[in-house]
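Dear support,

I submitted the protein below through the web form. The confirmation email said the job was done, but the results page showed an empty box. After a refresh the structure appeared. I'm attaching both so you can tell me whether what I see now is the final result or a partial one.
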Amino acid sequence: MATAVVCTGLLGVLLFALGFHVSATRGRTNKAGSIPDDPSDPLFKAIRAHGNTAEYAPTLGVLMLYLGVHSPAQWIQWTMIAVTACRYLIVIGILSSATLDRPHPIRFIGALGTYVGGMILAITMLLTVLR
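What the results page shows now:
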């Protein structure tokens, strides 16, 4: 259970830190109510990093906590850790990209790890219920 709680907590820290980053970037750029459409704009990247995290972190947290309560196998705990790391990687890839118009290898690894790991966690949860 500890792995699930720590990973979920780390996803929460990421989400709220990115929310703060969006607010700080808005303040620094004096763009309080607008959303830039330039994929190289730091505010655009901050908003996308936060939005992308908000799209995945809650579901991943639910999956991890559910599985954590059911004494997951070691490989499931490693999957939780890997997915959490991939969520951080995708944020690093988004924020460090010169522009979001072009692929970035760190973003790709983070996205792929999120999709594969998230699917593993979701299927494992379903199998746990169906047993």
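Response: this is the final, complete result; the empty box was a page-load delay. Helices lie at 2-29, 42-69, 74-96, 105-130.
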